[in-house]
Write a structure and sequence with these properties.
- This is Phage portal protein, lambda family.
- It holds the Pfam family Phage_portal_2.
- This protein is α+β, with helices and mostly antiparallel strands.
- It has a domain of about 300 residues.
- Helices cover about 40% and strands about 10% of the residues.
- A 5-stranded antiparallel sheet has the order 6-7-8-9-10, with no helix packed on it. A 3-stranded antiparallel sheet has the order 5-4-11.
- A hairpin with a 5-residue loop joins strand 6 and strand 7.
Length: about 500
C-alpha cells in the first residue's frame, strides 16, 4: 500500500489536498510573477521603526528643492486651513479667546491659527507633530497662563524602545502602562538635527507627561503609534521624475549652446608642427565664430556651415509628463491642477467634480485630525487655565464642564467655483427646505448669528438715513421691484380675472 500524505487542521480534521495546493486568489499566487512581491506581514509600528527617519528626511528634501512639491504643499495647507478653523463657543463673551489667539504660540512667531498651518505642514512632511500645553506664570501678563509649544517629530526617537525605570514599556519613544495607555513621551531636549549645541544645552532625553502632549498624526492602521510622512508613497516617483526633468533640461541647454558646425573639405597638415614649431593662435582656422543679428561672415575656402538641429523630445513628452504629475498629485492628495497650475482643457463641470472630491477629503482631515487632535484639546486647556486662574468666573464649570467644552469648529469656507450657479443652487436648497440658512452660512465659514446681527444693524442704519437697497427684502423683491407696487399689480390682476 502506497503511503498517503494527510494534512490535518488544529482539531485533527483532514484538509483536502486541493485546498492546500490550489490558490483560489490570483493576488495570493506564488508563481514566478508573484513569488517575491508583497510577502511581508510586518506590523504597523515595525514598518516605521527603521524607515521613519529616512522618510522624513527625504520628504523634507523634496519640499525644499522641488518647486512642484512645495507648491502642492502650500496649496494643501491653504485649502485645509486658509484663514483658520474658528471656534463657536457656548460662552457669550469671546473677547478673552480673541486676546489669547495672538499670544498662543510659545515661541511668539504665530497666532493660534498660524499654529494650525504649522501643524498641517508637519503632518505632510513628517507625518506627525507634537503639541505641548505649557502652563505659564500669571506675572508674564498673558491673557491666560497657557501657551502652545509645537515640537517636531524628530524629538521623539522612534528607535528608543526599552523598559522605563518604573517597569513600563517604552515603544518608539512613548511610555505605555500595563493597559497600553500613554503615560509619558521621552523627548530629546534639543532637536537632534541642530548643529550648534553647546555644553550648556547638551542633548538629553526628558520624559514629558502624556497629559501635556497632543500627538497629532493620521493613523492608517489599527494600533499605529507614529505617523508616516504623507509623501511616503511618491518619494521615489517624484525623485525619478525630477532627475528625468533635469536631464531633459540639461540636454536642451547643451543643444541650444551650439548654433552650428563648420566642416572642412580636407585636413591640411602643417609640416612645421612636426618640428616643434608653435603656431600663432590667431592663425588657427579651427575657431568658434560668434553669430550676431545681421552678420554675414566670410568663410575660408573649402569650409561649409551646418546649422545645429537638435532632436525634439517628441509629441508624447507632454502627455507622459502630465500622466506622471497626475500620479504625484493623487499620492499627495490634491488635484493635478492644484499641483501644476495647468488648467488646460478644464471646464466648469470637470474642475468642480475634482474640487468637490478634494474638499471632501480635506473636510475629513479637518474633522478627524486637526479639530479632534489639536484644536479641541487646546480650547479645553484654554478654558481650564482661564477658570483655574480666576480669569473666568464660572461657578459650575467643573460640575458641567462637558457642556462648556461643546465647541463647534468652523473651518474657513471655500470660494465658489462659479458664484452665480453655486449661489442659485444654495438659494433653491434653502427655499425647498433641503438646507437651513445656518448650514449655508456655516459651509461658507461664517456664523449665522453674526450674519443676522450684521444684517439687522445694516437695516437699522439704512432706515435711519432713509436708504432703500435692492438687497433689503422688506422693501424690494428679488427682481428689484418695490414690494408695495408689486402687491398692487397682483391685486389688480386678480380683480380683472
Amino acid at each position: 500500500m502506497e503511503p498517503c500524505l494527510r494534512i490535518l487542521d488544529s482539531r485533527g480534521n483532514r484538509i483536502p489536498l486541493s485546498a492546500v495546493s490550489e490558490q483560489p486568489f490570483e493576488g495570493a499566487a506564488t508563481g514566478r510573477r508573484m513569488n517575491t512581491w508583497g510577502t511581508s506581514t510586518v506590523g504597523p509600528n515595525t514598518s516605521l521603526y527603521s524607515s521613519l527617519n529616512r522618510l522624513r528626511s527625504r520628504s523634507r528634501e523634496l519640499i525644499r528643492n522641488n518647486p512642484l512639491v512645495q507648491g502642492g504643499v502650500d496649496s494643501y495647507v491653504a485649502n485645509a486651513i486658509s484663514a483658520g478653523i474658528f471656534p463657536r463657543w457656548q460662552l457669550g463673551d469671546q473677547d478673552l479667546w480673541e486676546e489669547f489667539v495672538p499670544k498662543a504660540d510659545y515661541y511668539g512667531a504665530c497666532s493660534f491659527y498660524g499654529l494650525q498651518s504649522l501643524v498641517f505642514n508637519g503632518l505632510i512632511d513628517a507625518g506627525e507633530i507634537l503639541s505641548r500645553k505649557v502652563n505659564r506664570s500669571m506675572s508674564e501678563g498673558l491673557p491666560v497662563p497657557l501657551q502652545i509649544q509645537l515640537i517636531e517629530a524628530d524629538h521623539l526617537d522612534e528607535t528608543y524602545t526599552t523598559l522605563a525605570p518604573n517597569g513600563n514599556e517604552i515603544r518608539m519613544g512613548i511610555e505605555l502602562d500595563r493597559e497600553n495607555r500613554r503615560r509619558f513621551y521621552w523627548l530629546w531636549s534639543e532637536h537632534p538635527g541642530e548643529s550648534f549645541l553647546t555644553s550648556r544645552n547638551i542633548n538629553r532625553r526628558i520624559s514629558v507627561p502624556a497629559r501635556e502632549i497632543d500627538h497629532v498624526y493620521r493613523p492608517i492602521r489599527a494600533g499605529q503609534m507614529r505617523g508616516r510622512p504623507w509623501l511616503a508613497s511618491i518619494i521615489v516617483k517624484i525623485h525619478e521624475y525630477d532627475l528625468y526633468d533635469d536631464a531633459e533640461l540639461v540636454r536642451k541647454k547643451g543643444a541650444a549652446m551650439f548654433g552650428g558646425f563648420i566642416e572642412e573639405d580636407a585636413v591640411q597638415i602643417d609640416p612645421a608642427n612636426y618640428f616643434g614649431k608653435k603656431k600663432d593662435p590667431d592663425s588657427d582656422s579651427r575657431k568658434v565664430l560668434a553669430l550676431e543679428p545681421g552678420t554675414f561672415p566670410i568663410l575660408p575656402q573649402g569650409k561649409k556651415v551646418h546649422f545645429s538641429e537638435p532632436a525634439d523630445v517628441g509629441a508624447s513628452y507632454e502627455m507622459w509628463t502630465r500622466q506622471q504629475l497626475r500620479q504625484i498629485a493623487t499620492g499627495l492628495g490634491i488635484t493635478y491642477e492644484q499641483l501644476t497650475g495647468d488648467l488646460t482643457g478644464v471646464n466648469y463641470s470637470s474642475i468642480r467634480a475634482g474640487l468637490l472630491e478634494f474638499r471632501r477629503r480635506v473636510q475629513q482631515l479637518q474633522l478627524e485630525i486637526l479639530i479632534f487632535q489639536f484644536c479641541q484639546p487646546v480650547a479645553e486647556a484654554f478654558l481650564d487655565a482661564a477658570v483655574l486662574s480666576g480669569i473666568l468666573g464660572i461657578r459650575d464649570y467643573y460640575r458641567n464642564r462637558r457642556n462648556y467644552v461643546k465647541i463647534q469648529w468652523r473651518p474657513d469656507g471655500w470660494p465658489w467655483v462659479d458664484p452665480v450657479k453655486d449661489q442659485l443652487a444654495e438659494q433653491m436648497a434653502v427655499r425647498n427646505g433641503f438646507k437651513s440658512r445656518a448650514q449655508v452660512v456655516a459651509e461658507r465659514g461664517g456664523d449665522v448669528e453674526t450674519v443676522d446681527r450684521e444684517i439687522a444693524e445694516d437695516n437699522a442704519r439704512a432706515d435711519r438715513f432713509g436708504l432703500v437697497y435692492d438687497s433689503d427684502p422688506r422693501y424690494m423683491t428679488k427682481s428689484g421691484v418695490v414690494q408695495k407696487a408689486e402687491e398692487t399689480v397682483l391685486a389688480a390682476t386678480a380683480q380683472t380675472e
